[in-house]
């Protein structure tokens, strides 16, 4: 049995590693492209962020820390070999989320449109809520649900990268601010419900051995 299962786990681990490496490169790329000239006071980028600079530095530091630690928290291999490190980094991740997410609000208020302020509030709430549920689950020994909610939490974090990959697409760029708002709201919406579909996909598409009527299902609800 082990001879059959082991290669599957190795393939999944390798696929996950490749995904996160590509995602890391893309995150660095979009961060650089979006913030070119940030350290040049006369540049349009620096002037754009100047009203919210203090909030932005706090938000950016802890947001980046959470995104980095989230990758390691989702590694089965690291969790199995270094459980104490996994727990310690997990708490750092939680603290980082609960600092980064609220600080996104004053940044948006000072430099963005009202629609993007609302989007930031929704994303911050979703990120903190899913993280809090993941923490609650692990504190109560519900490891399966802890992992599932951590995945949901990280999906709210990667909105940062996904949105910035989509916004530069020429047809979207031509729309200006409405195009940015469309992308941001769409990625947040996907982060809210797409993980549940992916996590439960097998249960959704599989057919039960015996079909239940609604009355039978309600009896066991």
Question: Can you put this structure into words, describing what you see?
Answer:
By secondary structure, the protein is mainly α. The chain has one domain (10-219). The protein is 82% helix and 0% strand. The chain is built from 12 helices and no strands. The longest helix has 33 residues, at 2-34. The protein is globular and about 65 Å long.
Helix-strand string: HHHHHHHHHHHH
Tally of domains: 1
Residue fraction in strands: under 5%
What structural class is derived from the secondary structure elements?
Answer: mainly alpha
N-C termini distance: 35 Å
- Overall outline: globular
Counted beta strands: 0
Oligomer: single chain
The helical percent reads over 70%
Task: Round the mean pLDDT to the nearest integer and report it.
Answer: 87
Radius of gyration: 20 Å
In the predicted model, the low-confidence regions spanning at least 5 consecutive residues are 1-6
Count of DSSP H/I helices: 12
Major β-sheet annotation: none
For this entry, give a set of tags:
single chain, 221 residues, mainly alpha, disordered N terminus
Give the topology.
Layout: H1 2-34, H2 44-49, H3 53-73, H4 76-81, H5 83-111, H6 114-139, H7 143-157, H8 159-166, H9 170-173, H10 177-199, H11 201-205, H12 214-219
Summary, kept brief:
With 221 residues, the protein is mostly helical.
